[in-house]
Write a structure and sequence with these properties.
By secondary structure, this protein is of the alpha+beta class. The chain has one domain. The chain is 25% helix and 26% strand. The protein is built from three helices and eight strands; from the N terminus they run E-E-E-E-H-E-E-E-H-H-E. A four-stranded antiparallel sheet has the order 1-4-6-5, with no helix packed on it. It starts with 13 loop residues before the first strand and ends with a strand.
């Protein structure tokens, strides 16, 4: 997935909330670093797309990207939610999660937010 030329999009200024080293959850024995940052100003949709395109992930108002000192195996993956078809096992997992959390059979509200931009971003450890 490619974005239009990002040069006209102003790079958002962020402040670091948390930055520490910890054991990697994907690769035992490896040191992980994933600084959490918060934008100084609210992000515009193009600015959020820019950060996601560059490998950031977002949780609420916080953005983060893996920046491990000795490993670069993690890679950001963007999924076009409009074309996503769950496998049988992921559909079963979704049903079990909805039942455990007491959600209706409707998709969680994050689906609607993701559909506005057409993509969702998830991290994937190697």
């Amino acid at each position: 997935m490619s974005l239009p030329d990002p040069s006209p999009i102003p790079r958002p200024e962020t402040r670091v909330l948390q930055d520490r080293f910890e054991e990697c959850i994907y690769r035992p024995g490896q040191v992980a670093r994933c600084p959490a940052r918060v934008p100084v100003e609210p992000l515009s949709p193009p600015q959020l797309d820019l950060l996601l395109h560059e490998g950031d992930q977002r949780v609420g108002g916080t953005v983060f990207r893996t920046e491990c000192p000795f490993c670069h195996a993690c890679e950001p993956v963007r999924i076009d939610v409009r074309d996503f078809v769950p496998t049988r096992s992921s559909a079963a997992s979704g049903r079990a999660t909805r039942a455990r959390c007491g959600w209706s059979s409707a998709r969680p509200s994050c689906r609607a937010a993701a559909s506005r931009s057409g993509t969702a971003t998830v991290g994937r450890g190697a």
